[in-house]
Amino acid sequence: MKNLELKILTKIIRELSHFLLVHGFKTFSLETKVEDKVTYFVISIDQPKKALLDKMNERISRERELEVETYGWELLGDMDDKNELDVLGLLIDDIVIEEKPNQAVITLSRVSRYKD
Fold first, then answer.
1. Do residues 104 and 48 make contact, with C-beta atoms less than 8 angstroms apart?
2. What are residue 108's DSSP bridge partners?
3. How far is CA 77 from the centre of its chain?
4. Residue 68 to residue 72: CA distance in whole angstroms
5. Quick check: 78 and 5 in contact, CB under 8 A?
6. How far is CA 49 from CA 18, 77, 100, in A?
7. For the chain, which domains are there?
8. What is the pLDDT of residues 40-67, one digit of tens each?
9. Which residues lie below 8 Å from residue 87, measured CB to CB, with a gap of 6+?
10. Distance between CA atoms of 109 and 41, rounded to whole angstroms?
């Protein structure tokens, strides 16, 4: 895996953790799985608010953009709360939110576009 891809993945993990902590989650799990060229970020949270899940889905369900791939990812962590997931959504390929009673499992996936 290219060093640039590793830096992007690290910033994504940091941004997801920051988002959850800012929104009052004191307990959550964030698991990262790398399989071939796909990286999965699996977040488990208890007592999620529907509005927060909808916000995550809306902000992250975007088309990836080449411009962000080349330089915009560096903006992660420098955003104000209003734009907190906008850049992140441009780095993620897919989001799936599975709601269970009193819990949600959010799976984000990213396909690396970098050759080894």
1. yes
2. 41, 95
3. 12
4. 4
5. no
6. 17, 23, 12
7. 3-111 (3.30.565)
8. 999 999 988 899 899 889 888 877 766 6
9. 68, 72, 73, 75, 76, 79
10. 6
